[in-house]
Amino acid sequence: MVLKRFGRNKGLFLIGLLLLGLITQDVCAGESSVIELSDGSVITGEVVSFDGKVWTIQSSSMGTLKIDGAKIVSIRSKTAVGKEPDGGISTGSQANAADMQAMQQSIMANEQIMAMIMGLQHEPEIQAILQDPEVMQAVNAGDMHALLSNPKFIRLMENAKIKDITKEAVK
After folding, report:
1. Which residues, 6+ apart, have CB-to-CB distance to 35 below 8 Å?
2. pTM over 0.70
3. Where are the alpha helices (DSSP H) in the chain?
4. Is the pLDDT confidence value at 30 over 70?
5. DSSP state of 27
6. Which of 40, 55, 56, 78 has the most neighbouring CB atoms within 10 Å?
C-alpha cells in the first residue's frame, strides 16, 4: 500500500489528499458562513478573501469587514450550522467518501503529484499543522467541516505550493 511507502509522513500524505479534496470542491468562498470571533461575537456573511493575515467578509447587515485572522475562532458553513446529517447532507468523516476514494486512487497513481505532496514536508506551515492535535484529529477522521472551521488550516490552503498541487491534480 502507498501509505506504507511514506511511513512517518502519513499525516502529510493525508493532509495533501484532504487539501486537494477541499480546494477542488470550492467549499469556502461564495457561500454564507458563520464566523465566531474571540470576543464571543458572531458574524454571518460570505468569506470573500484571505491574504494570510486578514479575512475579508461581506455581511448583508454590516457591509464589507476586514478581520484580523488572530481574532477568528472558527468559520463554519451557514448551511451546516445547527443541522444534523440527513439523507441530503454529508458531514464529517462520511463527507464525499466515494469521491475521496476515487481521488486518492488517482493521486496515488500520479508520481508527480505524490512527489509534490512529499515536497511539502519541509514547509514551516505544514510542520505547524502536523503539530496541531486538533487539525490532525480532523485530518485522520476525514472531517472536512472541522478543518474548514479551523483558521490555521484555511490559511494553509492559500499556500502557493498547495495551489500548484491542486492545479496539477485537476488537469
Report:
1. 42, 43, 44, 45, 47, 55, 57, 67, 72, 74, 75
2. no
3. 2-6, 10-24, 97-108, 111-118, 124-130, 133-141, 144-148, 151-156, 160-169
4. no
5. -
6. 55
**In this predicted model, what pLDDT tens digit does every residue of 110-141 receive, in sequence order?**
788 778 877 877 788 877 877 788 877 777 67
**Residue where the block lists cell 463554519:** 76
Cell reading at 143: 472531517
Q: How far apart, in whole angstroms, are the C-alpha atoms of residue 45 and residue 27?
A: 14
The answer to whether 80 touches 27, Cβ cutoff 8 Å, is no
Residue whose C-alpha cell is 477541499? 22
| pLDDT score for 16 | 63
Confidence band for 8, pLDDT divided at 50, 70 and 90: very low
> Is residue 48 predicted with pLDDT exceeding 60?
yes
Sequence letter at residue 18? L
